[in-house]
From TrEMBL:
Gene3D superfamilies assigned: Formyl transferase, N-terminal domain
Gene name of the record: purN
Protein name per the record: Phosphoribosylglycinamide formyltransferase
InterPro entries: Formyl_transf_N (IPR002376), Formyl_transf_N_sf (IPR036477), GART (IPR004607)
Site label Raises pKa of active site His, positions: 144
Catalytic reactions of this protein: N(1)-(5-phospho-beta-D-ribosyl)glycinamide + (6R)-10-formyltetrahydrofolate = N(2)-formyl-N(1)-(5-phospho-beta-D-ribosyl)glycinamide + (6S)-5,6,7,8-tetrahydrofolate + H(+)
Residues where (6R)-10-formyltetrahydrofolate binds: 64, 106
Amino acid sequence: LNLGVLISGTGSNLKAVLDAIAEKRLDARVNVVISNVATAPGLEHARAHGVPTLVIDHKAFPNRQAFDGALVESLRAHEVEWVVLAGFMRVITPTLLDAFPLRIVNIHPSLLPAFPGMHAQKQAFDYGVRIAGCTVHLVDAGTDTGPILAQAAVPVLDTDDEPALRARILAEEHTLLPRVLQWMAEGRVTVAPAQDGARARVS
Ligand code: GRF
């Protein structure tokens, strides 16, 4: 599995993927890590694992399509087959989607379809849910929509504040994302047409 990972920040999910590869729990290669933020701390994780890094600053482009065009060009140049959005804080356009149809994976810190968009953990905490979690899904044209591949749930405790809940969810993200990528490496993920849209199946 030739991966390209897109990040904007801390990159702890990127680190989880790189660690899983190093520990041979994940049969994949990260061909390139691209950040739209030059100072993203996550770039250090890539460097520490000897993975090529690129900074492509969205502000240098006139519009989203042009930015995504530059992403596609770099991903292709690095022979990327699957794109992983790991804390990539940009809305993507058909330019990127059509270049990697059903080959873009996102990790989102809620049990979708609840709480899409920004600050999902805060949305869940403020709502007062008793079960929260994270979702790995294939990316389509919507925001945090697209066929769901796997989810992990965590309890919300009475003693929690929002950072505590966020940390509990993040720990699950670090397990779930490499596991789903390994399913892909094993060719176990298929997307079947369902009544209202596509649905992912894992065999
Ligand atoms: C994670 O919570 C992820 O689900 C969300 O953004 C956060 C990124 O964290 N999309 P990190 O950069 O991987 O540490």
